Amino acid sequence: MELAEAYANKSVDEIKEALAGATLRVYSCPQPETPNHPIIRNGLLAEFVLGSPAVDGDNALVEPVPAKNVGTPLFSRATTPDGATIADFSTGPGDSDIKLAEVSCSKDAPVKITKLQIRPGVPNGKQPVSPSDKMRERIGTHQISHEQTYAWNDDFAARKTK
């Protein structure tokens, strides 16, 4: 669980209070670096509106909802009714903050939260680094393009036909 800056020093009870009536969105896209960063690629799978109170122990007080898309849950973001981010939760099998009844989501199939743990200080799992990310890091670039590797592109402006 990664808390937004505004909730970083809050107690578990204060976080539970903030979650009352919050919107919890489940995503299949990569998780942003912190909850304060926007979600760039929108792999929205499901959207819940938590009850008040939101949790009872590790049980989320929320009804199942139909999935909006097909995918495998990677993380969830909780936001206040006015849209401010509360926290990002690890979502999926294993030692996750949020466990769903199914491992993946299918469009219009019910999505049910079976466990919601409030665990500040327990970091979310990190995605494995892909081979292309390793290569970008090794060569010191953010974009892989043939234009960076061919010497003939160095004088392109001079060769450009008018």
Instruction: Look at the helices and sheets and give the structural class.
Output: alpha+beta
Mean pLDDT: 83
Helical proportion, percent range: 10-25%
| Beta-strand fraction estimate | 15-25%
Question: What characterizes the major β-sheet?
Answer: 5 strands, antiparallel
Strand order, sheet with most strands: 1-8-7-2-3
Number of domains: 1
Number of strands: 11
Q: What form results from the Cα inertia axes? A: globular
Radius of gyration: 20 Å
- From the N-terminal CA to the C-terminal CA, the straight-line distance is 58 Å
Number of helices: 3
SSE order? EHEEEEEEEEEEHH
Indicate the low-confidence ranges by residue numbers: none
Question: Can you characterise this structure?
Answer:
The structure is a single chain. This protein has one domain (2-116). Strands 1-8-7-2-3 form a five-stranded antiparallel beta sheet, with helices on one face. The chain has a two-stranded antiparallel ribbon with strand order 4-5. The chain is built from three helices and eleven strands, in the order βαββββββββββαα. Strand 4 and strand 5 form a beta hairpin. It is α+β, with helices and mostly antiparallel strands. It has helices at residues 12-19, 131-139, 156-159; strands at 2-3, 23-27, 44-49, 55-56, 59-60, 65-66, 75-79, 85-90, 98-100, 110-111, 113-116.
